[in-house]
Amino acid sequence: xxxxxxxxxxxxxxxxxxxxxxxxxxxxxxxxxxxxxxxxxxxxxxxxxxxxxxxxxxxxxxxxxxxxxxxxxxxxxxxxxxxxxxxxxxxxxxxxxxxxxxxxxxxxxxxxxxxxxxxxxxxxxxxxxxxxxxxxxxxxxxxxxxxxxxxxxxxxxxxxxxxxxxxxxxxxxxxxxxxxxxxxxxxxxxxxxxxxxxxxxxxxxxxxxxxxxxxxxxxxxxxxxxxxxxxxxxxxxxxxxxxxxxxxxxxxxxxxxxxxxxxxxxxxxxxxxxxxxxxxxxxxxxxxxxxxxxxxxxxxxx
Length: 302
Description:
alpha/beta; Rossmann fold
């Protein structure tokens, strides 16, 4: 066991009292998985066209209808998972549903995860990937999406591209984005009483490891602080029973101060990444159906 892993394990054990046994066990499982890489479910291989290539020794999956895309829309979908978890069933299911409805192509980067890696490693992969994609397609056909930590990464990446005067995606769509790993917003404590999924103490452990030694105040880790003047067509789907919700308002207010509009679709009593569970038994849940339709309409009208 490396010294870094031993140090993190001690922090997790200390945190058990604060975050509960289940959350701590989950963190320990991911801690000892090592250099995680996603596994493509068999049904995805059977029902969709899948191509794989590598950027900086990390896989990038390209998913489309079995007979090929029926339009020019290309979505880069950046998965969530607190920067410690890889592509899960809800991500594959959501992407398959989007493809079924739109016939488009989706690019899923299998980016480096903490604690093995930090944000520097992640951006060392994601920047060249982004630039390689926009060299091959018309920018008007390009959409960047992300959920949770992937939503934060998506926004930080787009902010950095704007800062470097690189062409911006036609749309950026974020689902329950994690915008600030420091979680210092005083409104979080109130929301946490109603949040059945996320725990502030557990998230902070993951966020600190993603930030590494010198990144805890970087906007690449906390895109709530990033340059917002060049953002365009950003839409955020968020629920009021999600502890990440308060930072969405902070971002929106910062953007408005420089004349940038961010479209926020807020659903009362919705929890973290609730839209990604549409395919399960809650298909008739009004908390899911309406905002999900809005998200699909944004993609259709791209």
